[in-house]
User: Fold this.
Amino acid sequence: MTLVVCEASKHGIVMVGDSAITESYPSDWKLHSGSSINPTVRTGAQKIIPIWKINAGLSVWGFGTVGIEANLNATVPIDKYLEDFAHSINQNETLEDVGNKLADEVNKRIEVGKVRGGFHLVGYKRENNKMFPCLYHVHTGHEPNGPHEKLELHKDFPYNIPNYPFDTALEAINNGSKFYLRNGNYETFAYFQRYLTNLMDRLEKERNFICPDESKFKTPLEARALFLKLQVQTICEFYRLSDKLETIAMPISWLSISPKGIEKFEPIKI
Assistant:
């Protein structure tokens, strides 16, 4: 599977992703002995893709490959496809344009209804004289076990956060709240992040221990990026040491975006 996480805060946007791609096989595919084929994992997929012309970012979960229009069974690596897609974007396109275009193009390359996956799309937007971060999600539906639909754009933050109307969501960000998109095998990460947040709050209150210390970094956004990177790295190590298949694995890539544009992109290092 995978783990991709996006964070929106008053400092900016951070995207972090692992590099594992899990290949599963139909249950009726058998080896010579009659045994089923176990899932296989490869690492080295570049899941975080900058879109330089519009200072935005893309990440992927659930897809290892896509087909071509003439052959949906072709296996084009998803990271190579997304890198090429990102280069095709022009500077006049909006996040909505990009999200809808991505959905339309990938729907032509998959068996709609038979696959589950999605893409995070992030960047800044100006509306009604307000500049704010956006976390969008292009996906095949909310239910893990289906029904799986065609890919569609969902404008999650700040437009569709439960219990947070648009203006309330922006006010919360400005007051220090953080909002996340988490996909792939994210359940273990969600537990870990919740307890880690509580731990860091207690350490700050009871031990005057502050992490990350923003004064150590060039910008507060860099501090947020490296702290989120650490969290994803930790989950990679959990999986490496656990009894589970290493469907979340290093190396890791990350991207940070401020209101001024892309601040830093660190691709995977193999």
In short: Residues 3-185+221-266 form a domain with the Glutamine Phosphoribosylpyrophosphate, subunit 1, domain 1 fold (CATH 3.60.20). The two ends are 19 Å apart (CA to CA).
